[in-house]
Amino acid sequence: MRPIDSEGRSYLDFLAGIGVCSLGHGHAVLQDALKGQVERLLHVSNYFYVEHRGQAAALISKLANNDMEGARALADAIAADDEHAVIDAASSAEGEQAWQTFFANSGAEANEGAMKLARLYAKRRGNGGNTIVCLRGSFHGRTLETVAATIQERLQEDFRPLPQGFVACSPNNVEELRSIFEELGNEICAVMLEPIQGESGVHPLSAEFVRVAADLVHQAGGLLIADVD
Ligand SMILES: Cc1ncc(COP(=O)(O)O)c(C=O)c1O
User: Is Secreted found in the keyword set (predicted)?
Assistant: First the structure.
């Protein structure tokens, strides 16, 4: 289904509602799944285990391992509603990492979760630092913490004072990044970046910059946060 604007123009939507509509608009399979769920159960709090959430997490883990065959087998088992086959297909193959997923309501909440995780990781296993390096021209959301991580003056100026603990670096400037780590390495718990910045234009990061960022932050005992919203 194509969205139609107020002038009656119809669109083929490659914007995907900024990341939240990547399954398209009104596809019959999607409609059936949504209707079916609404008829069964609208919402339960996260105090309870939700079967489909567990299955979706297992599927994401397969995909994160680039195990397309395993993901297909799991998706088929889920579609067939075959509990034993789901358990079999969801288990990790030899040498496969079992990834955990934090489900969030929005990109901003996902980024807040990632920043909290980085600080927690640094506290428990890393260097204990709490500084997050973010890139100029970035966009990470509309909550105060994600506005602080969004290094664009025009998006920050009306909301000061902002939460602390963020340092700015220019995208693709490997030298500046290295000097930030030389100065603050022990305090850095994460580098947060969009592989392709989208809000300030379309600015892809170079493979070299991402590699150096990953190496430096891992050596410092922190995490690389990739915001792909
Ligand atoms: C790169 C990026 N990060 C985070 C967000 C925030 O997502 P949300 O609007 O779902 O909170 C957006 C979109 O607005 C985005 O483009």
Answer: no
pLDDT in tens, 133-180: 999 999 999 999 999 999 999 999 999 999 999 999 999 999 999 999
The CATH number of the domain holding residue 196 is: 3.40.640.10
CA of 136 relative to ligand 1 center, distance in Å: 16
Ligand 1 atom with the smallest distance to the CA of 141 is: 6
Q: Is 139 in the pocket of ligand 1 (CB under 6 A)?
A: yes
* Position 23 in a domain: no
Cβ–ligand 1 distance for 140 under 6 Å, the answer yes
Structural domains in the chain (count): 1
Nearest C-alpha to atom 8 of ligand 1 is from which residue?
107
Q: What is the 3 state secondary structure string of the chain? A: CCCECCCCCECCCCCCCCCCCCCCCCCHHHHHHHHHHHHHCCCCCCCCCCHHHHHHHHHHHHHHCCCHHHHHHHHHHHHCCCHHHHHHHHCCCCCCCCCCCCCCCCHHHHHHHHHHHHHHHHHHCCCCCCEEEEEECCCCCCCHHHHHHCECHHHHHHHCCCCCCEEEECCCCHHHHHHHHHHHHHHEEEEEECCEECCCCCEECCHHHHHHHHHHHHHCCCEEEECCC
pLDDT of amino acid 229: 80
Residue 195 belongs to what domain range?
107-226
Q: Confirm whether 18 is domain-assigned.
A: no
115, part of any domain: yes
Using a 6 Å cutoff on CB, does residue 227 contact ligand 1? yes
In a domain, 220, yes or no: yes
Residue 21 has pLDDT above 90, yes or no: no
